[in-house]
Amino acid sequence: MRVCTKSDEWDFSDTTLKDTQCLTHVFHPYTAKFIPQIPRRLIKIYAPRSEDVILDTFCGSGTTLVEAKLAGRHSIGVDMSPLAIMISNSKVNRINGNKLKKFIQWLDELKLRDAEGFRTDKMYFSDDRIWFRGDVLGQIDTVLRRLGRIDDFDTRNFVMVGLSSILKGISNARMDRIVPTLPRRPRYIDYKHYGRVVDNLTREINVFSRLSSRLKLMEYRLELFLSQASNAKALPYLGDARRLDELDSPLLKKGMIKLVITSPPYWSAFDYEKIHSLSLDLFKLNRKSFESEIGQQDYLADMEKVYDEISCYLASRGKFCLVIGRSKRRINRRLADLGRKYDMPLREKFIRKIRNHSFFVKGIKSEEILVFQKR
Fold first, then answer.
1. What mean pLDDT do residues 123-141 have?
2. What global pTM score does this model have?
């Protein structure tokens, strides 16, 4: 096994926020996602042919799918979160430009009106009047009612992702917390953003204006992405990595996947249901899948099932690349040893220090990229 520790190879120390948030990668915040430079390099090394198919069993917000399409490789993404699939779809699919422009034009007309004129009694969240001011909730309701008139699925999904991406910022939740958390008082200090004072009662929140700006940025980035991307298929699926045989995908055939790139949930995983609770409530997304997330009962037992599934679908001499934070616990060692049990011995291990990046899980400041090869 080759172990690479050279910082200039995998640290990407000169990578800026502009580089990691390029093209459609900027669409939606998603906790603990890996930077696009990682799958980009792995695809270049281990999937050199245009016919190679790539699988991400924990696709999250679709980073691998975006990079695979840019590289001209067909790809499949699987995730148990319905919001993750929404985001992934928005990043790789064309939309109806005319329908989006009409929607943005409507937003631009409404942003000039008095926000106090928008009120609603409709209940979207567990406690509307706490999470959102009345005028803000009224604007959200107005957007959703208009959104229902968009009859093109990809365009409607695109707008929903745009709204989801600004949702926490227009709520009363603290801006310096990952999980939506209400401050004790409407006026509080935002420690994440230079200790500025935030007053939820008086700060200006124009939903129409913010959503318009967001959608314009997303539209520009999507057009730029599609101008550089190939016609390769990028297919996100709502599903369970422990039961890949339940997916109905023309690309997912046993023994035919050339490369798997994925970053699994961590043993000390973030609670994604809580992190994205506002979006899940707003769009009435099914939360049942979160009840059986990886690691809810036995992390290693769940990962064994994932390895077993990957082994069935991976082609002979195909590569399985697992990106995971380094830990003082023996989890990584056991994950590395697990490959042999499923006929995928560990061939290479790359170590990267995490720099210029907000991904610090429980103090983890470096990652291992484990590369297994199917016999």
1. 88
2. 0.93
